[in-house]
Design brief:
about 260 residues; alpha/beta; Rossmann fold; four-stranded parallel sheet; about 40% helix; binds zinc ion
């Protein structure tokens, strides 16, 4: 493999990493979870999809290195479902800070986080702000909730609830596209659209919303929709990275 095609640091040796990393390098960090996603999707869905997305982007954009994805997250709101493996909020904040600091101390000051799980959003923000406070010249960017973004950008792609839902229309479609063998079509649970207020957030637990572990409309999932999701998210990430590179990773008043 040519050096340009190497980007998974977990699979590279010291010589390859030294050749690959320079002051243009962007490190990609992926955070997922290990939890029930209905009877049809794998427990690792929340890191499997962002990891695949990152790999698709890294094939097209040079200068990326992808760290091994973190397969656990804050899933206390899923704990009533069997075999949810959750880590504490403070544990995750510390873990993220440790990873950001390690990357920074190795001379890589540009970091892109791709998050796959709602429970990780707040810890990512706290860890990123603490790290930015400590190292002002670090840049930390984050695609924090692709499952919400995609319905806002392309509502026409989805039939129900803008594609939302845990193991719902968008998540099921995405997995059908990137890893069809991991989708058990015979076990797709019934659609469950939870009754929730429109503009005010309730900090629910998953068992308050669904009996199956899935919400939304997994029955409306399709490869076609998954292809659209992948294309849109890849485009968003690629244009972000190209724009940042063009601006030498400056933004705001520094531009
Ligand atoms: Zn999740």
């Amino acid at each position: 493999m040519k050096n340009d095609e190497l980007f998974l640091i977990g699979e590279m040796n010291a010589h390859q990493i030294k050749k690959k990393v320079n002051d243009k390098t962007v490190a990609v960090l992926i955070f997922g979870s290990c939890e029930n996603h209905g009877d049809h999707l794998p427990f690792g869905s929340d890191f499997i999809f962002p990891f695949e997305l990152a790999k698709r982007v890294a094939v097209k954009i040079q200068n990326l290195i992808i760290l091994p994805p973190i397969p656990y997250g804050v899933s206390s709101h899923h704990k009533k479902f069997y075999m949810t493996i959750s880590i504490g909020t403070n544990t995750l904040i510390s873990l993220i800070e440790n990873l950001l600091e390690s990357v920074y101390n190795n001379g890589v000051h540009k970091i892109l986080i791709i998050n796959g799980h709602d429970g990780n959003i707040a810890p990512i923000e706290i860890a990123a702000r603490n790290t930015k406070d400590r190292y002002p010249n670090i840049t930390i960017a984050c695609l924090e909730s692709w499952w919400e973004l995609i319905g806002k950008i392309s509502p026409d792609t989805f039939n129900v609830w803008d594609g939302l839902g845990h193991g719902g229309e968008a998540e099921t479609s995405a997995m059908m596209t990137i890893s069809p063998d991991l989708v058990n079509k015979n076990n797709i649970p019934e659609d469950t659209i939870p009754n929730l207020p429109k503009h005010i957030r309730i900090f629910w637990t998953m068992d308050e919303l669904t009996k199956t572990g899935a919400t939304g409309s997994p029955n409306n999932g399709s490869v076609k929709k998954g292809d659209v999701i992948c294309r849109i998210l890849e485009d968003i990430l690629i244009s972000f990275l190209l724009d940042m590179e063009n601006n030498r990773w400056k933004y705001g008043l520094c531009l």
